[in-house]
């Protein structure tokens, strides 16, 4: 038996698939939201207004909340706010440098930039991580620490050691910076919109 489109699919098969999908939706909604009846599911699917009081929602916090930690979304919001604050401060220093493009940044300017980077990493690192995100967050923080350490070595090479060391550390920075796009994509995939941008 075929349907009116003549594509060979059985109307009975479609009915069973439809029932299976509906049963699956009911199972998911029951598990997460306590929605127990097909009429409740139909109201939601049809976009009919419903009151959250209609739901028998179990008050079960996620693993992070049970452990006294922020949710992933809350953590990302707080981390991005921290990164925004310190990126703005870094931008102000960078603007000062750009106003004098023919002059090398001073030891003091480099040190201020390093201090800003260190403050950001310290503040970000002090945020409690959500359950299950610790390893990934530590990887992001380590990426920032590596970059900061290279900037410190650049400063030291520029003002203390000499050209040969400066070439080496500049190459080290270029190698580190070559991975910036993949780290940015990884951070976006995790949920960040600012950190590692």
Describe the structure.
- The chain starts with 10 loop residues before the first helix and ends in a 7-residue tail after the last helix.
- The radius of gyration is 27 Å and the shape is elongated.
- The chain has 197 residues and is mainly alpha-helical.
- The longest helix is centred in the last third of the chain and has 28 residues, at 134-161.
- The protein has helices spanning 11-33, 38-45, 63-66, 72-98, 107-126, 134-161, 163-178, 180-190.
- It folds into two domains: 11-60, no CATH class; 66-190.
- Mean pLDDT is 73; it is low at 9-61.
- Helix 4 (72-98) runs antiparallel to helix 5 and helix 5 packs antiparallel against helix 6 (134-161).
SSE arrangement, N to C? HHHHHHHH
Mean pLDDT: 73
Q: Which percent bin holds the helix content?
A: 55-70%
What structural class do the secondary elements suggest? mainly alpha
What is the number of helical segments per DSSP (H or I, 4+ residues)?
A: 8
Low-confidence segments, ≥5 residues, pLDDT <50?
Answer: 9-61
What is this structure's SSE topology?
Elements lengths: L10 H23 L4 H8 L17 H4 L5 H27 L8 H20 L7 H28 L1 H16 L1 H11 L7
Helix pairs in contact: 4-5, 5-6, 6-7
Summarize the structure.
The protein has helices at residues 11-33, 38-45, 63-66, 72-98, 107-126, 134-161, 163-178, 180-190.
């Amino acid at each position: 038996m075929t349907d009116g489109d003549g594509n060979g699919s059985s109307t009975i098969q479609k009915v069973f698939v439809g029932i299976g999908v509906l049963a699956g939706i009911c199972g998911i909604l029951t598990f997460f939201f306590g929605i127990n009846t097909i009429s409740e599911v139909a109201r939601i699917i049809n976009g009919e207004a419903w009151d959250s009081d209609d739901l028998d929602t179990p008050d079960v916090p996620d693993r992070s909340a049970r452990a006294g930690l922020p949710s992933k979304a809350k953590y990302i919001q707080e981390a991005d706010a921290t990164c925004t604050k310190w990126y703005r401060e870094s931008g102000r220093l960078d603007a000062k440098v750009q106003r004098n493009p023919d002059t090398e940044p001073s030891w003091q300017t480099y040190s201020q930039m390093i201090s800003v980077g260190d403050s950001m990493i310290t503040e970000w690192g002090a945020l409690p991580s959500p359950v299950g995100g610790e390893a990934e967050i530590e990887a992001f923080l380590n990426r920032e620490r590596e970059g900061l350490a290279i900037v410190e070595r650049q400063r030291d090479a520029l003002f203390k050691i000499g050209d040969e060391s400066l070439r080496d550390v500049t190459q080290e920075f270029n190698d580190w910076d070559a991975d910036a796009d993949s780290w940015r994509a990884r951070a976006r995939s995790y949920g960040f919109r600012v950190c590692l941008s």
